[in-house]
Amino acid sequence: MRYGGEGRSRLLLIILIVTSLLLITLDLRGVKILDGVRSGTQNVLSPFQKAGSAVVSPFRNFFGDVTNLGQTRSEIEKLKADNAKLRNQLLQRKSADAELDQLKSVLDLAGRAGYKVLAARVISQGASTSFSQTVTIDAGTSSGVRPNMTVVSGEGLIGVVKESYSNSALIMLATDPDFKVGVRIAGTQQIGILSGRGSKRAELQLLDNQQVVKVGDVLLARGSTNNRPFVPGIPVGVISAVDNTAGSIAQTATVMLYPNFSALSVVSVVLSAGKNNPGDALVPAPPRPTPVPTVTIYATPSPSASTK
Amino acid sequence: MLARQFSISSLVFVIIFLIQESVVNQLRLPGGGFSLVLLIALTWAALSTPTVGALTGFISGFLMDLSQSSSGAMGHWTLLMILACYAVAFLGFGNDNVRGNPITNVFLVSAASVLTLVAYVITGFLLGVSVGSFSRVLITIFSNGVWALLLTPLILPVVTRLHRSLFGKQAHI
Question: Which CATH class is domain B2-167?
Answer without folding.
Answer: mainly alpha
